[in-house]
Amino acid sequence: MDTSAAKANLEKLDRQVTREEVEDAIRTLLIWVGEDPYREGLLETPKRVAKAFKEYCAGYAMDPRDVLYRTFEDAVGYEDMVVLRHIPFESMCEHHLAPIVGNAHIAYIPVGRVVGISKLARLVDGYARRLQIQERLTFEIAQAIGEVLKPKGVACIIEAEHFCMKCRGVRKNGSRLTTSHFVGAFSSDHGLRQEFYQRLRCEALPTGAY
Ligand SMILES: [Zn+2]
Prior knowledge:
Layout (H helix, E strand, L loop, with lengths): L2 H12 L4 H14 L12 H12 L14 E2 L9 E12 L5 E11 L4 E2 L1 H12 L2 E2 L1 H16 L3 E10 H4 L10 E8 H4 L1 H12 L9
Parallel strand pairs: 2-5
Antiparallel strand pairs: 1-4, 2-3, 3-6, 6-7
């Protein structure tokens, strides 16, 4: 794509898209799959889908890192690993607009500042509620914690099912993708990673998950 075409595209993106245009696009999709968008059952569908997409993609309206700025400093002296397992999330794959449903597991080693555990869950949601690939989601969560809390290290593991793989294409139901990203001490210290895996394994995770 030449520069002027790319610029024209960006200008198009900048312009406010109306709700009517989105609903028209969904009606077009309904016709494309063989439906009559004006039959009774589908009359309200474009409106519902438009609203649902705003919810699936609510993460674009925020900087997820903002939730990490309220920290507790009275945990000074706590230098052990903080682990939050099984943070459920729903995201959407950017290749097929199909759901990605899974769990994130996060660990960090604080230096003076710790964050409320609900904030970690909200951080995951902020990045998950965008069009994603799982690898980037994992990276963004770990990097955000690293940048804002400046801990000794951060680990993030995500395991998720991709509905684009479950319901279309190869249709492999039940296969799960596991991704990990390590920052600071976790990337250099094999022992720390082992401890993290051990803590994940010690409860709830199915044997052999890692
Ligand atoms: Zn996909």
